[in-house]
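Regression test case RT-17, inverse folding.

Input:
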């Protein structure tokens, strides 16, 4: 696929070619005209020389009449002889030639007519030399001398006429020589200047084309690198039409490497083929019609699809957008998400089932609490700044407390133990409770209770639960003699409470009992199932269980078990087991020791935490990917802040130089194109700066400070004072509150909103902006968003501008989204996106309402 053909325009190069060809044609035309003028001047000089020659011939012709020998020759033959006739025809020929040469000059023709009259007169006088018979020689001599004087007079007039002709031609000759010399020197100079100018245009055009070509190569390399490293399938298609101009298919012009990764299709083999031939399933699920609709209506189409690749189901989210003369499809692999949803759904069902069992256990436990005569209480630790337990809070107490203290259980909840039982610090009960928590071991003790002068003895058992303790108290006053029986009952209750408590905390668990002296082991049915066996399918024992432990973790389990047996203290740890089917699972175990029938018994639970550990590993990988994405974003910021702006600065520098040195030579059309190039450079610089501003807004910033929005507004109005005064804008603001936030972000927020209100002002009304503020409760806000505060400041910015259609209320906050053409209103389409990001960074919410032609209102909620 040719990305330059898709993303760039060739108009600039066509215009440069036309200009260069026009210069070549103009240079050739001027050169041709100069040569024609030089030829014309040369012809005129030649013509003048021909006239010179003819006048010279005429001078030679009439000058013969001065020669005595020529006269005598004429007299010998007589006036009517051939010699005189030839002489006269020669003169007439020369005159006719001169008339022809001077036919375009009336002055010369008039002089030639006078010359012809004089020449005829000369012929007549020559002819009369011998036409009279004289009686004597004296008369002949006198006549001859008289005739000669007449001839000489005529010759004198001829010479004067010839001089006039010659003087006029000399003037013409000088003018034509000057004109010829001018054209002779101007022609090569003009050719040289125009040739140099055309060469300069070609050089400048070549430099620009070369720079653009380098920039296009960098952009193309960057885009190809992005497409080759993305995890999404990116394909580009152009439509195929039938004879009725209907779209019957699409031709694949580009496909990235993800097609090979996901579908096993090589991109080089796909290019040139049709979409329906490569992806026939598109015609079955209606997505081909969406692709046609996207191309015909120039709209974005989003769809989800499930396909089968190599007998495996895969899910993709496809986004089809119009681009140039075709459509661009981006498909994101959502298989992992869909599978995670299915796993989550299954886990949710199992969790619901376990919760139901826990509810049954709770109900069962509640019935036990109601049916037994024991007082059961649960206390939560209260610690000081050093982490030491200083008191307890009552979280639970059953109804058996009423006969003893006269209190109702609900009245005692959330009260401090020291307030209800102030004697605990004196009788040692407080130390037992603390030891049960800090040493993580059950504590048993006996405590007396005085009421109405009567002492009642109670035996209590304190067992740690979280950061609290569960105390089971029973009256032993009348049952001391039956101590053994009560002890057994208490031990069974402790075991049951322990199992039920652990079951309430841990889902997917199994329980076990291990009689240390007799080496007898009992495990629950669920424990068998967790190992892949049916209940009681094998005889449990410590040695048998070691066979299930993963070889790499056997030493760990042995060491932990030995430590627990030595100290008789619970020890919680995680290890791996290999089930009957060969699957590896992670088990977390926890146990405690009790004395039963004078024998030490270890009771405990195991939990299958395989999914939790796998989820943690997946989360760790996701965090690594997020770190990589953040690094790539930082890299992009560096590219945008330097690598993208550096060539732009050079372009603007050369634009400035061309404008300074060459702008006066531009034609109107060239000046128009140059202005568009200059404006496009400014717009691209603004776009890059706004993109950087948008990407640099830190959404994780938490070090907020107190910001007085009145000071923010005052600074914004001061910065926009020139624009406000030029547009005669009126700004009316209520007293604004103080909030927790970032000062410069609030400044940018108000600056963008007020600038927008001024930019999109009405052409028939003076701009008026109203800024209002009120404090409201979160429950009174009708808009839906995550509310982190009980109260919010509602701040509205209203104007009387051109407004917009309310259906675009969400679109205007998206990056690069504009409702007007750039030749109508300047801007990059990022300003409101920055506003939204700033408000959300402050845990707030912003939206817009408007009516076309009557103004717009931007409303934001900021935490109070």
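Golden output:
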């Amino acid at each position: 696929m040719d990305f330059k053909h898709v993303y760039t325009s060739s108009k600039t190069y066509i215009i440069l070619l036309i200009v260069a060809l026009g210069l070549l044609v103009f240079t050739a035309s001027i050169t041709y005209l100069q040569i024609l003028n030089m030829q014309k001047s040369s012809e005129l000089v030649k013509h003048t020389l021909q006239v010179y020659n003819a006048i010279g011939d005429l001078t030679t012709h009439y000058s013969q009449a001065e020669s005595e020998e020529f006269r005598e020759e004429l007299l010998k033959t007589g006036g009517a002889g051939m010699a005189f006739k030839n002489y006269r025809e020669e003169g007439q020929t020369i005159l006719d030639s001169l008339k022809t040469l001077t036919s375009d000059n009336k002055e010369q023709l008039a002089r030639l007519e006078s010359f012809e009259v004089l020449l005829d007169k000369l012929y007549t006088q020559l002819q009369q030399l011998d036409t009279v018979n004289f009686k004597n020689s004296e008369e002949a001599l006198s006549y001859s001398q008289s005739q000669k004087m007449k001839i000489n007079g005529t010759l004198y007039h001829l010479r004067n006429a010839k001089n006039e002709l010659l003087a006029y031609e000399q003037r013409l000759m000088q003018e034509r020589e000057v004109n010829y010399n001018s054209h002779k020197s101007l022609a090569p100079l003009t050719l040289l200047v125009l040739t140099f100018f055309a060469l300069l245009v070609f050089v400048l055009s070549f430099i620009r084309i070369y720079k653009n070509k380098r920039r296009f190569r960098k952009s193309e390399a960057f885009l190809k690198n992005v497409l080759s490293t993305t995890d999404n399938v990116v394909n580009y298609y152009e439509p195929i039409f039938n004879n009725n101009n209907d779209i019957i298919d699409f031709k694949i012009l580009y496909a990235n490497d993800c097609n090979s990764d996901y579908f096993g299709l090589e991109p080089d083999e796909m290019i040139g083929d049709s979409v329906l031939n490569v992806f026939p399933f598109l015609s079955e699920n209606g997505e081909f019609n969406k692709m046609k609709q996207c191309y015909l209506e120039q709209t974005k189409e989003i769809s989800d699809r499930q396909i089968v690749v190599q007998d495996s189901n895969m899910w993709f989210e496809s986004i089809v957008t119009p681009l140039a003369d075709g459509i661009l499809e981006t498909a994101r692999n959502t298989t992992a998400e869909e599978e995670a949803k299915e796993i989550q759904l299954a886990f949710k069902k199992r969790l619901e089932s376990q919760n139901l069992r826990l509810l049954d256990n709770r109900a069962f436990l509640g019935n036990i609490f109601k049916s037994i005569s024991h007082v059961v209480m649960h206390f939560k630790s209260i610690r000081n700044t050093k982490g030491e337990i200083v008191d307890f809070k009552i979280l639970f107490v059953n109804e058996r407390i009423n006969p003893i203290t006269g209190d109702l259980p609900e009245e005692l909840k959330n009260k401090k133990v020291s307030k209800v039982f102030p004697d605990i610090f004196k009788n040692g009960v407080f130390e037992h409770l603390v030891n049960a928590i800090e040493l993580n071991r059950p504590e048993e003790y006996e405590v007396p209770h005085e009421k109405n002068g009567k002492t009642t003895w109670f035996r209590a058992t304190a067992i740690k639960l979280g950061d609290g303790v569960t105390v089971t108290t029973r009256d032993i006053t009348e049952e001391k003699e039956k101590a053994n029986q009560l002890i057994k009952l208490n031990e069974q209750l402790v075991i049951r409470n322990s199992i039920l408590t652990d079951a309430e905390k841990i889902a997917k668990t199994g329980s076990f009992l291990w009689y240390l002296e007799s080496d007898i082991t009992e495990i629950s049915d669920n424990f068998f199932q967790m190992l892949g066996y049916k209940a009681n399918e094998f005889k449990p024992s410590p040695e048998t269980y070691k066979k299930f432990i993963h070889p790499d973790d056997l030493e760990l389990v042995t060491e932990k078990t030995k430590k627990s047996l030595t100290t008789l203290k619970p020890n919680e740890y995680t290890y791996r087991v290999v089930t009957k089917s060969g699957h590896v699972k992670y088990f977390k175990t926890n146990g405690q020791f009790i004395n039963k029938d004078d024998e030490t018994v270890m009771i405990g639970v195991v939990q299958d935490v395989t999914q939790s550990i796998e989820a943690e590993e997946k989360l760790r990988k996701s965090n690594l990917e997020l770190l990589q994405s953040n690094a790539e974003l930082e890299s992009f910021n560096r590219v945008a802040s330097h690598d993208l702006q550096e060539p732009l600065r050079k372009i603007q520098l050369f634009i400035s130089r061309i404008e300074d040195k060459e702008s006066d030579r531009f034609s109107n059309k060239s000046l128009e194109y140059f202005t568009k190039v200059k404006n496009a450079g400014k717009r691209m610089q603004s776009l890059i700066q706004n993109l950087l501003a948008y990407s640099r807004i830190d959404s994780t910033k938490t070090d907020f400070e107190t910001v007085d929005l009145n000071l923010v507004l005052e600074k914004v109005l001061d910065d926009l004072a020139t624009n406000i005064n030029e547009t005669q804008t009126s700004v009316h603001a209520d007293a604004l509150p103080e909030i927790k936030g970032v000062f410069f972000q609030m400044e940018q927020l108000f600056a963008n909103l007020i600038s927008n209100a001024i930019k999109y002002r009405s052409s028939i009304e003076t701009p008026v902006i109203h800024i209002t503020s009120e404090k409201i409760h979160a429950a009174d806000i009708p808009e839906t968003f995550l509310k982190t505060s009980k109260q919010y400041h509602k701040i509205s910015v209203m104007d009387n501008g051109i407004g917009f259609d309310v259906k675009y209320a969400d679109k205007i906050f998206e990056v690069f989204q504009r409702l007007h053409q750039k030749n109508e209103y300047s801007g990059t389409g990022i300003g409101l996106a920055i506003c939204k990001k700033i408000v959300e960074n402050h845990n707030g919410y912003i939206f817009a309402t408007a009516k076309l032609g009557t103004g717009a209102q931007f409303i934001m909620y900021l935490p109070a």
